[in-house]
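Hi X.,

You mentioned you wanted examples for the new student's onboarding notes, showing what a folding record looks like when two proteins sit in one file. Here is a clean example. The first protein comes first, with its sequence line followed by its structure tokens.
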Amino acid sequence: MGVVVDPITVGPNQTINVDLAKLPAPDRIYDADLAWIEHQGRAVSLFFAKRLRNSPQRLRTRLELRYSPEHLVVHFWQNSRGFHERLRSYAAKWPPDDAREEIDPAKMDAEHEHSEWTNFEAMAHVGSEACLDFYLLPAVGVARFARGQGSSGLRLTPIVRVQLTIFELLRLLDSAESVVNEVKAYLPKLEGATEELQKEGIEESL
């Protein structure tokens, strides 16, 4: 697993900027048949799964990508609004998949599963093929930067590239809306909205 430095720059007002064009693809690739989101308590996770070919009601593998609630709202949701609408318009040109409506992957058992944390992602699609690249900007690096201890810790670590259809990605984004609304209902109501929420929540114990 590599570490990326060059895509990150610090703006004149001390904002952290990421140049998507300079982000290399993650080395690990996951082929997903199914995608969904779960929200329990204060935990939010995106799930991706591969079905067993000869036992379609079971999963061969399941990948969990965990988000903090605020990163789900501030990054995954807010940054994908235009992409989501364009994806919906394109997918509407295809006939519906009625069989998918009968599947509830959250209730399926998996032979193997794996979990990772993430807080940054990039989405793309070409025709009916879609992918999501997931990265992690470490909390320690952000905290030290916020305390004036330099930007050397601001390093994006590639986590995984998930390949899936646009129809499954659209389903994931559509279902994320209700979760985002639930999260917004309990996020601290700080003056200055999301930017202040992020600043207030930065601390490090040494």
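Then the second protein repeats the pattern, sequence line and then tokens:
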Amino acid sequence: MDSAHNIELQRKGNFSAVDLEANKQGKYSESQLKRFEDERNYIKETSKKYDNKGWLISLIFGVGALFFAVILYFVGVFDILQESLGGLSFPVLCVIAIFVAIVVLFVIPRQYQSSVEMYQAMGNSLEAEPVGNIQTIEARAETRKSQGGINRRGHQSSKIYYVLQMDSIEFLISESLFEIIEPKRLYRVFAVKDSGVWVLLSMEAIG
């Protein structure tokens, strides 16, 4: 029974018996290393289109800030401010405008570029940044479905994520693997934390 279940885990979990045996020895199989390399090459290529776009981000936020200011003008916020502060209203507006300009022209582009550089670092080659050591986790499986947040239109997203939890560690898994994992059953999982995310390499039932 365990043997048949483990074979099904391999088929649904996108790993092979060769992968599992290598992981048991604390090593990666050639196919797993190839998969990591392909993923990093993809990140490296796709990150190029996000680089040096700080000016575009500044333009978008600048137009948004201007549009917001126009709305405030037409609803009478500036008139209220002038009545409340009198002669101080102009200096206050100048300070606000300078603050917004600094945020739009300097702060936001730097934060954006910093995020891009972090994403680019995830595309480093295996030679420059090897994958971490394989971790072995033995625990009773917990599974659940999770619906993915709010979409761009402000509505609940229909995307479903499938989660495997082993002790305090969570993995995103495929629907097919989710369907055959038996909750509360004892499993041994081989995994690695790559770029801050736990990646399930292979697994087997041990109880």
